[in-house]
Amino acid sequence: MHSQSYDIIIIGAGPIGLACGLHAKANGLRYLIIERGCLVNSLFNYPVNMTFFSTAERLEIGGIPFMSNSPKPTRNEALEYYRKVAISAGLNIHLFEGVDTIRKMDGLFALTTAKRTYQTKNIIVSTGFYGTPYLLHVKGEELPKVTHYYDDPHYYSFQKVVVVGANNSAVDAALETFHKGATVTMVIRDKEIGERVKYWIRPDILNRINEGSIKAYFNATVAEIRDHEVDINTPDGLITVDNDKVIAMTGYKPDLSFLENMGIELADDEVCKPNYDEATHETNIKGIYLAGVICGGMNTHSLFIENSRDHAAKIVAHISEQIKSTVTA
Predict the structure, then answer these.
(1) Distance between CA atoms of 97 and 272, rounded to whole angstroms?
(2) In whole angstroms, what is the distance from residue 8 CA to residue 26 CA?
(3) What order do you get walking across the sheet with 221-225 strand by strand?
(4) CA-based, 20 to 30 A from 250: which of 10, 118, 129, 188?
(5) Model-level pTM greater than 0.85?
């Protein structure tokens, strides 16, 4: 292993991590973006047919125009856009390289990965929340037929599918697999479809449920999963349905233990919001900053690409000031 030194290391190559890289490069800082998965890994794991709620212009970073075929771009258009941004800007990115440990030594942070050790004056954590799904914690969840990530509906053609959840991901999975010939049963913990479901999708799912094309159990939970069946707790008692595949769209959570291991303080409540300065995004650990969805802690629906793009400018401006003041001191 060998060591390399930077002004900033950005952990996470999602849209906000890329935005941080763009600002760092524009300010002449030595920077590196490290990502444990592929480029914009969270977006890559979105369903292949997904359409964003935001318009293309609100997903833009670095002032680089995002052209799409319709006002609301698709997942594939977003992948193409962010990839071209990274290429055209010549961003310094190391993919498929997760950070194992971070420690402070001689005034610098040492980040160790499976490949090498890096040294940096500052760290920006922009890890999002898509990597850790909420589990059902039921018997059979470990079976190969169960997934917490839904991609292509064709795979589920002519299968008996149970979809768990009631928000956008679950509704997309239910409708798309239904339209590809699957027999779909939805298991919904609450009394109705989620409030955040996209307005152009809501009528379709409600109509399918009302006509009985998609069977939905409300105020229900999965009790057990077996190779060819699923048990469901309903207000009318336990029922068993024939089943080939389970798509558990139960949501995702950030890896807050990663922050705690760095010494970042979390609020002592259910949100667990990290301790950081709203003006600079610097945490209680000097030199470590947070950008993007991770700033919201467990409240993963408060921040999106469109309302956290400005984090990059705030952070890099503060780091640049710190470096200049150190040089002139």
Answers:
(1) 27
(2) 13
(3) 221-225, 229-234, 237-242
(4) 10
(5) yes
Closest CA to 71 of 200, 166, 246, 190: 200
Rounded (5°) CA angle 153-305-296: 105
Contacts of 134 (CB under 8 A, 6+ apart): 250, 251, 252, 253
- Domains, the chain, ranges and CATH? 3-132+252-328 (3.50.50.60), 135-248 (3.50.50.60)
From residue 138, alpha-carbon distances to 141, 161, 221, 232 in Å are: 6, 17, 10, 11
Say how far apart CA 123 and CA 11 lie, in whole Å: 7
Give the pLDDT band (50/70/90) at residue 329: low
Nearest to 80 by CA among 95, 64, 96: 64
- Residues 56 and 257: their CA atoms lie apart, in Å, by 33
Helix axes 15-26, 75-89, angle to 10 degrees: 20
For 83, list phi and psi in degrees, rounded to 5.
-65, -45
Each residue of 178-204: b (16+ CB within 10 Å) or e? bebebbbbbbbeeeebeeebbeeeeeb
pLDDT digits 0-9 by tens, 35-90: 999 999 999 988 888 889 899 999 999 999 999 999 999 999 999 999 999 999 99
Query: In 10 A of CB 133, how many CB atoms?
Result: 15
Residue 157, helix vs strand vs coil? coil
Asked if 287 contacts 249 with a C-beta cutoff of 8 angstroms, the reply is no
Distances (CA, A) of 193 to 204, 219, 250: 12, 11, 13
> For residue 19, what is the DSSP state?
H
Residue whose C-alpha is closest to residue 133's, from 229, 45, 245: 45
